[in-house]
């Protein structure tokens, strides 16, 4: 028996590796259980925070909703939907700065969604900051739903901002400036409505073309003296004689009046051809002149290129008859379009014409008392149906190379507004008077009977 008892083997102890493995498995199991419990706890906490924030936001209690949303976002910082809710809460609280920053956060998370862009656009529109709204839309290049932003962009094209200026007189735009006047004194503004030349002159005309021999000069009158000033308002060219008028330089000459006759001067005040009852400024190599009651066109050698065969030649407020490549002349009671070579463009006759407002764009024409629009070859594009009109301005968009504004002022009954090139009214007829826009999106309009103000299309008001 004892020998058999001795033969019973004692169990061998497990080796260390097996013990360590078992310990690791047990630890992992315990960790997993702890992690699951933590995750369950975090999920429960997250859901609780979101539910609390949503409930408070729905009641308009944004001061408690916002911290709850913020705590929840610490757990899921890339939650696009939660960031949008936080932005909405900031909006409800009136914290616009935080709202904008949070919308930018949403865009960073997912730049393909339209909602945060639309939120920013709505904010700027509410504040009448239309140019900023357009910039947000233009920046939304990665948004998948292009249509919603495209439609919104289209609706903003013709929003405009009014400038806090008012004048009794406003001239035509020339080389980035318009002459303005109030109570008999004149100055000049830029396309943003900023006063660049103080209103202190008895007479003032536009700024000479930068490429001319008298670059950037304004002819003016102060007290009884005519002279030229630069864009800082300082005297620049002064003649020896007592001129009765000085005009804008072009093609090396400026119209002038001396001893009751008009002629031309060069930048050294050399006198040329003082033989006219009127002399206009040169553009595209031609100018309008008048002898007796008859008008003609002359070239830059001061020689006639037509006979004195016209009853009238239209000139703008700066004396130009062909600033934008078309001249309007009257002969035997009707107006016709002529090109810079003094050739008749078409046989179509009009009762009245408005000079072009840009290098491109239709021209306002009148037939039997109603105004419509003709192309630059004289072909009718928009049938005459308006009580008055001025020509179209062609305005390239700043934000999109493919888009061009084409706007013209029209009068319906006793009010003015603006149409696009299809004839659609895009700016309501709310003005007493309205002038063409310039290439920088700026126009002069009159809301009352006495004063003009400046409006700027939102895209250009930066």
Structure description:
The chain has 462 residues and is of the alpha+beta class. Among the domains are: 43-160, Alpha Horseshoe (Serine Threonine Protein Phosphatase 5, Tetratricopeptide repeat); 163-172 and 352-462, no CATH class. The chain contains 8 helices and 31 strands. Strands 24, 25, 26, 27 and 28 form a 5-stranded antiparallel beta sheet that branches. It has a 4-stranded antiparallel beta sheet with strand order 1-31-30-29, with no helix packed on it. A 4-stranded antiparallel beta sheet has the order 2-3-4-5, with no helix packed on it. Helix 2 runs antiparallel to helix 3 (62-75) and helix 6 packs antiparallel against helix 7. Mean pLDDT is 89; it is low at 34-40.
Tags for this model:
462 residues, alpha+beta, Serine Threonine Protein Phosphatase 5, Tetratricopeptide repeat, 5-stranded antiparallel β-sheet, 4-stranded antiparallel β-sheet, 27% helix, elongated
Concise description?
The chain is an alpha+beta fold. The chain is built from eight helices and 31 strands.
Produce the secondary structure layout.
Blueprint: H1 2-7, H2 16-59, H3 62-75, H4 80-93, H5 96-109, H6 115-126, H7 130-139, H8 146-156, E1 160-162, E2 169-174, E3 177-182, E4 185-189, E5 195-201, E6 203-204, E7 218-222, E8 225-229, E9 235-237, E10 245-246, E11 254-258, E12 261-265, E13 271-276, E14 278-279, E15 286-291, E16 294-299, E17 312-313, E18 327-331, E19 334-338, E20 352-353, E21 363-367, E22 370-374, E23 380-386, E24 388-389, E25 393-396, E26 404-412, E27 415-419, E28 425-431, E29 433-434, E30 442-446, E31 452-457
Antiparallel strand pairs: 1-31, 2-3, 3-4, 4-5, 6-7, 7-8, 8-9, 10-11, 11-12, 12-13, 14-15, 15-16, 17-18, 18-19, 20-21, 21-22, 22-23, 24-26, 25-26, 26-27, 27-28, 29-30, 30-31
Helix pairs in contact: 2-3, 3-4, 4-5, 5-6, 6-7, 7-8
């Amino acid at each position: 028996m004892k020998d058999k008892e001795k033969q019973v083997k004692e169990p061998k102890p497990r080796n260390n590796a097996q013990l360590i493995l078992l310990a690791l498995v047990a630890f992992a199991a315990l960790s997993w259980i702890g992690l699951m419990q933590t995750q369950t706890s975090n999920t429960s906490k997250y859901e609780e925070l979101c539910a609390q924030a949503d409930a408070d936001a729905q009641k308009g209690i944004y001061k408690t909703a916002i911290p709850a949303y913020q705590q929840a976002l610490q757990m899921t910082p890339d939650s696009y939907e939660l960031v949008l809710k936080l932005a909405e809460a900031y909006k409800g609280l009136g914290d616009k700065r935080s709202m904008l920053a949070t919308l930018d956060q949403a865009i960073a998370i997912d730049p393909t969604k339209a909602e945060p862009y639309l939120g920013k656009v709505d904010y700027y529109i509410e504040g009448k900051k239309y140019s900023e709204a357009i910039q947000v839309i233009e920046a939304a290049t990665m948004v998948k739903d292009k249509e919603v932003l495209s439609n919104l962009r289209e609706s903003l094209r013709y929003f405009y901002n009014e400038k806090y200026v008012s004048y009794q007189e406003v001239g035509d735009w020339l080389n980035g400036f318009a002459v303005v006047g109030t109570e008999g004194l004149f100055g000049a503004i830029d396309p943003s409505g900023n006063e660049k030349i103080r209103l202190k002159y008895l007479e003032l005309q536009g700024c000479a073309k930068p490429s001319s021999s008298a670059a950037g000069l304004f002819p003016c009158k102060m007290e009884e003296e005519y002279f030229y000033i630069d864009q800082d308002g300082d005297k620049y060219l002064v003649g020896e004689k007592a001129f009765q008028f000085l005009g804008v330089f072009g093609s090396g000459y400026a119209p002038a009046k001396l001893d009751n006759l008009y002629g031309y001067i060069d930048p050294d005040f050399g006198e040329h051809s003082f033989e006219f009852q009127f002399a206009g400024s040169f553009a595209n190599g031609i100018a309008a002149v008048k002898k007796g009651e008859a008008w003609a066109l002359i070239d830059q050698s001061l020689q006639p290129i037509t006979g004195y065969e016209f009853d009238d030649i239209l000139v703008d407020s700066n004396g130009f008859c062909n600033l934008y490549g078309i001249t309007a002349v009257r002969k035997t009671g009707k107006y016709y379009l002529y090109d810079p070579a003094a050739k008749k463009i078409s046989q179509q006759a009009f009762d009245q014409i408005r000079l072009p407002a840009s290098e491109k764009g239709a021209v306002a024409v009148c037939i039997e008392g109603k105004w419509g629009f003709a192309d630059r070859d004289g072909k009718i594009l928009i049938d005459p149906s308006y009580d008055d009109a001025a020509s179209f301005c062609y305005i390239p968009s700043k934000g999109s190379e493919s888009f061009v504004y084409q706007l013209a002022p029209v009068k319906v009954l006793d009010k003015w507004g603006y149409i696009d090139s299809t004839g659609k009214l895009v700016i309501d007829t709310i003005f007493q008077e309205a002038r063409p826009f310039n290439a920088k999106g700026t126009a002069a309009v009159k809301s009352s009977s006495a004063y003009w103000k400046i409006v700027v299309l939102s895209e250009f008001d930066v």
